[in-house]
Amino acid sequence: MATSTQPAPSRQQSRREAEAGPGVNFGRVLKSEWIKVTTVPSTVILIVSTVLVMVGIAALLAWQTTFLFDAQSDPEMAAQMQGAPDAAEISRDIPGSGLVIGQLLMASLAVVLIASEWATGMIRSTMVAVPRRTPALLAKQLIMAVVSFVVGAGAALLGYLIAQPILGSADLGFSLGDDGVLLHIVNTGSVLALVSVFAMSIGTLVRNTAGGVVTSIGVLLVLPIVVAIFGSGTEWVVDAARFLPSSGGEQMVATTIRDGALNQWQGALVLGGWSLLLLVTSLVVTKKRDV
To answer: How many domains does the chain contain in total?
Structure first.
């Protein structure tokens, strides 16, 4: 009896069938993580609150800068305010002036999103649905980084638009095309994206919400203050402080680079290097530890 054999499917055909079938792929994992983020009311409220707070800080600082400009325009007042920052110079940093609060809120959210899965045991369901742990964690990181970037850049742009009429009343207005302004706005989002990766990696390593939040905020906000207080008189400590994650983020959004300071791209390498190091470490540790 004659038999016929079917040719073996090509690799590309198998890949297309796998993507079209009911199996797990990275796109579907991303969709699942997006649903997790956008369907929790508390998460959405925190994201909206972050934008409002950052925009509000930009508006308040713009209003305060106009008073500083008026004071510096008076010769008598200007003589008494020697050493104060120039109003025209600091006005360029107003759009992203709420970045410190934005880091605090988005870093906390990043930790909560990952650490809470270990606290509730939901991480087991995630790893059953996505047996390969690396794609599951990378999907969480990518969604959080994109959300953080949109929040940061969007809030900075809104802060710029709201601050312009206020600054314009004191002839301090500036355009997006001015040197460093657009990069400042974009990098406000980039800093929040990298901070979210940094914090979520810590949450993955610690597997505890409170511990992850305290560690992230401690490294990003408290450690620079401690270094400034106790290491200000030591030259090597001052030099080393330039390579803290927070220092890298500050330089990424700086519109004026001081002598001896890192520029925007060097700051991005510092913060990005810390985030990448923690990300890789968290992936390796998660693959080796039980969930």
So the answer is: 1
